[in-house]
Amino acid sequence: MADYDIAIAGAGAVGMSCALWAQMRGHRVLLADPNPPGSGASYGNACTLATYACLPVNDPSVLTGLPGLMFSKDSPLSLSYAHALRNPRWMLSFLANCRAAPSRRIAGHLADLLAHADAGINPLIEAAGAQDLVVARGQLSVWSTARAAEAATADLEQRRALGVPWREVGPEEALEMEPGLRLPVRRAVHFHAARHLRDPQELITRMHRVFTELGGTTLQAPVEAVRASATGVEVQADGQSLTAGRAVIASGAFSKRIAGAGTGKLPLGTERGYHLMYEGEAHRVTRPVGWGEAGFYAVPHAQGLRLTGTVEIAALEAPANQRRLAYIARKGAEMLGPLPDPDSDWLGFRPTLPDSLPVIGPSPQSDRLLYAFGHQHIGLTLSGITGRLIADLAEGRQPNVDLSPFAADRAFA
Fold first, then answer.
1. Phi and psi (nearest 5°) for 341?
2. Which residues make beta-bridge pairs with 246?
3. What radius of gyration, in Å, describes the C-alpha atoms of the chain?
4. Which of 30, 157, 396, 399 would you label with 180, given CA atoms 20 to 30 Å apart?
5. Pick from 71-80, 134-143, 154-163, 317-326: least confident
């Protein structure tokens, strides 16, 4: 008999959701991570349950605006040329998916999955007794130039066609909704179905507490290797060998580092993201506010104002880019007026495949190994539904979501 029914490598939002869903269904679950649950990329996110976020980073505007995105000091994108040269296939595949037809296809798949996001995470919020952390005020997107406001039309209509609800908000109403804004508002859109969390880390902490109360086991160590057989999976962690009926690889950007998992063959890259925290400044906004041209969010957090976002394509091991942090601070002051010095800053690693779709489903080498990583900017939003789908697969159930677009053996262009 195996030590566990399911062993899960990774205790971020996705791994924790997989663990809690499986434990709530009565399985014997092992959750392994070298760090406390939720302390990695899940800790520093934009706090938003962004069910509207079906448009991928892979967008035709990336191709048309590439010179400005790469060389302007006001660009929300930063690229390490050395990293790009070391990973040409990933970069070329990413750019190939920025063409109109692939981008539309990707958006459709993300919209289909996001339509189930609330149904996946709501039961976990309830189980964790975390309803007090959830705020239903929607998300406000603003554009400060006429050119950007007009350019947003195609994307907004695409979202609407994919079933994402939103409403146009006049500049005056936008400023009534968020009187702390100091930038000129040329256009504003309210994604009224979105919600945000006062503290994503606290949600994961409470989920982990319930997981433990239900009998789940936590090992604070990395899963170093797995070996699948016809009857189960041998898991190497913390100098010991454990057995499980199935193993779930949910280690985010670090998922390629688990020997024997087959993940090393996948083009898993990293979009590095940053945030600045300003204690005592949460009153500046009342909901997540995204500034379209600047590519970042201002979010009210339980501990203060969080300015977060932008994209940096660079290696996992590269040091923090101080220019990214300076960019966020500068744009934050343009958006909200003068701010004090930030109390803390943070760098995290968004796991991203070159088509901006996650990998959810069995490994091509064994259905005893299940993959759940690559959720890029929407890991928090998709964590609950990913956990439910993984629990279904572990039990041999047919999920009610078509997982073929998220298969590990799909074509990445």
1. -65, 140
2. 6
3. 21
4. 157
5. 71-80
Ramachandran angles phi, psi of 199, nearest 5°: -160, 95
Burial code of 110-147, b = ≥16 C-beta within 10 A, e = fewer?
bbebbbbbbebbebbbebbebeebebebbbbbbbbeee
* Token pair recorded at residue 121: 């995470």
The pTM assigned to this predicted structure is 0.96
What sign does the dihedral 180-186-192-197 (CA atoms) show?
negative
Which contiguous run of DSSP H or E holds residue 176? Answer: helix 171-177
According to DSSP, the β-strands at 187-191 and 167-169 are antiparallel
Which of 76, 192, 184, 182 shows the shortest CA–CA distance to 140?
Answer: 192
The CA distance from 172 to 10, in Å, is 45
pLDDT for residue 245: 98
Residue 115: pLDDT band (50, 70, 90) is very high
Residue 192 amino acid letter: H
How far is residue 186's CA from residue 208's CA, in Å, rounded to a whole number?
A: 43
